[in-house]
Amino acid sequence: MIELIQHLVNGLSLGAIYALIALGYTMVFGVLQLINFAHGDVYMLGAFIGLYVSRHFALGDHPSLGNLIGVLVCAMIGCAIVGFLIERMAYRPLRKSSRINVLITAVGVSLFLEFSGQLLFGSDPKFFPQIYKPEGDWTLGALVINPLQVMVLGISLTLMALLQFVIFKTRLGRAMRAVSFNHDLASLMGIPTDRVISYTFMLGSALAGAAGVLVGLTYPKIEPLMGVMPGLKAFVAAVLGGVGNVVGAVVGAITLGLAEEFLVGYWSPNYRDALAFAILILILLFKPTGLFGAKRTEKV
Amino acid sequence: MTQKNEPLKNLSTHREPRSGLRTLWVWLASLALVWALDFWVTDQLDAYFFTILMYAGINITLAVSLNLVNGFTGQFSMGHAGFMSVGGYVAAYLSTRYQAETPLAFVTALVSGGLAAAGAGYIVGLPSLRLKGDYLAIVTLGFGEIIRVVLLNIDAVGGARGMTNIPPLTTFGWVYSVVVVTVFSAWRLVNSSHGRALLSVREDEIAAEAMGVNITRAKLRAFVIAAFFAGIAGGLFGHYLRYLNPATFDFNRSFEIIIMVVLGGMGSITGSVVAALFLSGIREALRPLQEITKIDFRMVIYSLMLIILMLTRPNGLFGTRELSEFLPAWLRDRLDPKASRKST
Hints:
Chain A is mainly α and 300 residues long. Chain A has helices at residues 2-32, 39-56, 65-91, 99-121, 147-169, 171-181, 183-188, 193-218, 228-241, 246-266, 272-286; strands at 126-127, 138-140, 143-145, 221-222. Chain A has one domain: ABC transporter involved in vitamin B12 uptake, BtuC, CATH 1.10.3470. Chain A starts with a helix and ends in a 14-residue tail after the last helix. The longest helix of chain B is centred in the middle third of the chain and has 27 residues, at 215-241. Chain A binds chain B through residues 34-35, 90, 93-94, 97-105, 107-112, 114-116, 118-119, 228, 232, 235-236, 239, 270-271, 273-274, 276-278, 280-281, 284-285, 288, 298, 300, and chain B through 1-4, 74, 76, 78, 127-128, 130-131, 133-135, 137-139, 141-143, 145-146, 149-150, 152-153, 206, 251-252, 255, 258, 262, 266, 295-297, 299-300, 302-304, 306-307, 310-311, 314.
């Protein structure tokens, strides 16, 4: 029983991180029908921005919650800029080309970020400084909960709530929903679709940046290829929940995080990375719209 | 799908190559040439260039076979390295297990590897080819990863340690015979009615279906054939390097093959051959730079190349054209400019 709860906590905090990344996928897919392969690498950049900011200000010397929030904000702003640039330079010129071409470009951008990351940061893992160190573990009988994990969960949920607010309560959110509903119609209604798409990229990338910092905090080894697997898994999570659906992405991500944690805990860690793909294949076969996705009919 | 607004080059203006097997002698002659060159190349050529040449041949096989799926059928597969690894491992397992080093045994091992890869292609393709575009790309990527993870956990083939002591059976003759056979098969396939079915799937699935093409079966056929040749390439690779490791067949390997196809032009066999040769060469040309800086520039350059290619020349070097389409016209132009101007 204790073990079960332990796995549950671990799975939730892993799932929350996947969720932050998955949200970016799902939002971009919503407005552009594009799978932004480079999204996982934006998350990697977030972690590295966090690393360099904390190093520069020597934040590891005096761990505090304020430090964490400061670093989070820096990483989010940095990633938003990166997201903006990616969209502007690589995807916007291809707005009118076929989807395969855009897909190839997205793969290209992703690999470019990964390998120029290796050039810039070096390919060996870096140690993320402990910018926030809560006192001791919380023990409840035999159950040990690391407050850091709770913090990660808390920050993720806060960011998700913020995103939900932006999407459903602001003019920008309404414009985003309009663009994802129908791109051409939205532009006829006077919505500056290109700008909305830019904002969507920036929002999604900012969330990925936050996820990068949170991961750096909980699993403090970061390296330029760290974004590949979480990126793909977050994509699986987005598909699981129904691509384009914000709530679905969160549910899918948490499901995936839990499934992975239980697989590792009760069976074998060897197939950890294969699980996500198996889930993806199954969901695409049996319910391609995902758990919460709307059905789209194809017209000639 | 790839060139929606362009005239369907391969469909309309494409001439049927002289019917039947009348071009067969060209291919048989190239096979003979390969074996004639075999002795010379193996003896005379510098070991370094020999290695490059061998990898170039393997890459041509991989690129041409992937082009059948990504180029001609318009389905974006990202797991080609997975099939390559299946073929490589099966072939290597057979020849180490039975210690057979005769040419016949080698061919058997290679073909078994190819068939195993084709089987894997069938299993992978059957469910995933119902998906389109981006989803297919990710699912094939996922399958490639699953194959790799499974290989990592099979102890009979060495698991993460890799498989060693594979007999060195791959020679120049074998590699380039496979190249000739692959190019010939791809060429004949694309110009057959099955091939036109593939092209129609690429151009418009719904229209193709309305014309009576069983699109899932057409895609599956392309996929299985591509996997077969990838498997054979894997077998050649394993018997040349004499060592196989699942880490060799990761996503980056698939990506290298993809960029060959894209650079050459999705839908051009000539393009794939040229791009595979070019990229295999450039990889070595960059090596000194890499040794000075201790950094692997290759992937950075590949990925930048891919982005710039998509932005400026999305059809690649050759688009959907083949050597046989523009070489005769070009030659005529050179030899007798007046005549060609009159005729056009």
